[in-house]
Amino acid sequence: MFDNIEFVNPELLVLLLLIPAIAAWFFFKKKDPYVSLKMPTLESITALSSLRGSLRKYLPLLRVLAFAALVIAVARPRQTLKEEDIKAEGIDICLVMDLSSSMLAQDFKPDRLEVSKRVASDFVAKREYDRIGLSVFSGEAFTQCPLTTDHRVVKEFLASLKCGLLEDGTAIGMGLATAVNRLKESESKSKVVILLTDGVNNAGYIKPLTAAEIAREFEVKVYTIGVGSTGDALTPVSRRSDGKYIFGLARVEIDEDLLNQIADMTGGKYFRATSAESLERIYAEIDQLEKTEIEVTSIKRYSEEFHRFALWGLILLILELFLRYTVFKTIP
User: Fold this and answer.
1) Which of 231, 264, 233 shows the shortest CA–CA distance to 115?
2) Relative to the CA of 318, which of 78, 101, 253, 283 has its CA 20 to 30 Å away?
C-alpha cells in the first residue's frame, strides 16, 4: 500500500507536530473536567476499580489518531504508477583485457590487473544503455562475456579475471580479432573496442594489424590503452613448480607504435596509462567521446490514496464520540 507513495501537499504534515501538544493538554491540564466528591477517607474504596473506568481515560487517543489520519488525508497521499519508454540506440562496446603474467607488475597498487579491473568496472556502470562484452587474451584469446545489457554480469566477470588462466604470452591480434568477431554482426550504429595491454605482441596466429584491418572493414572503432609506468617495475620473471610467480625488476616495454597504428586505422585513439589516476582519466575521456543521445519519454499515472486516511479519520472520530456519550458516559 505504501510503495511509491508521495504527497501533493507535504507541508501540511507539519500539523502532526501538534499531536504532542494535544497529548500534553489532555494529560497536564490543570482543571479537572469531572465532578469531584470530597470524602473524609478513601480507605473503603481504594480496592475498587472497573474496566470501564480504566478504558475511559484512553478515549482521547482515538481523537488523536483521528486527527493524524485527517492531516495525512489533507496532505493528499498518492501512489505513483510510472511507465517509462526509452527511445535510444546505445553503443556496442567490447572490452579486451590482457591477462599475461606481466599484468601482475606492481608499479600499480596492488598490481596492473586489479587496477584495470576496477576502473573498467566503474566505466561499465556509467554506460547504462549500452551493450557491453568482455574478451581476454594472453598467449591465446576467448570471449569471457558476450554482448549484454546486464552490466551486473559483466562486472562479475571482470571481478573474476586473473592471470594464469591461459597460456602465457601477449597475443594482441588474437584478442582484437576475438572482440571484432563478436561485434561484426551488430546492428548498432556505433561499435567500439577498448583494448588494454601492457606488452608487445609475441604470440598468436593473427597479426595485430591484420585484426585492425578486419575491425576497419566492419566499422569497429578501437581505442587502445598501454598500461605501465616508465622505467623498471617489479614484475613476474619466472614461475615456480607450485604455480607461484617469482618477481624481479624488469623494464616496462609497450609497443606504442603498434597501438597507435591500430587506433589510427580504425578511427580510435591511443592512450598511455602510467598510474591508476591516469587510467581513470582515460576511461573518463572515452566515456565522453562515445556519448549517445538518449530520449526518454515518461508517462506517469497516479492512484489517489487520501480517501483511505479520510475514511479512517472519520471512523475513529465517530467511534470516539459514540463511546464518550454511550458506553463511557459520565454523570452529570
Assistant:
1) 233
2) 78
Q: Is the pLDDT confidence value at 172 over 90?
A: yes
Determine the pLDDT at residue 13. 80
Cell readout for 132 is 557491453
> Contact 79/305 with Cβ under 8 angstroms?
yes
**Rounded percentage of the chain residues whose pLDDT exceeds 70:** 81
Are the C-beta atoms of residues 79 and 217 closer than 8 Å to each other?
no
DSSP string, 270-314: EEEE-SHHHHHHHHHHHHHHT----EEEEEEEEEE-HHHHHHHHH
Packing angle, helices 276-289 and 112-126, rounded to 10: 30
Higher-confidence residue of 15 and 222: namely: 222
Task: In whole angstroms, give the CA distance from residue 148 to residue 145.
Answer: 8
* Residue 273 burial class via C-beta count within 10 angstroms: exposed 0-12, middle 13-18, buried 19 and up: buried
> What is the reported pTM?
0.65
Three-state SS at 128: coil
Domain ranges within the chain, ordered by starting residue: 5-37+49-81+301-325, 89-293
Cell of 133: 562484452
Q: Indicate whether 107 pLDDT > 80.
A: yes
Of the options 3.40.1190.10, 3.10.310.40, 3.30.830.10, 3.40.50.410, the CATH number for the domain spanning 89-293: 3.40.50.410
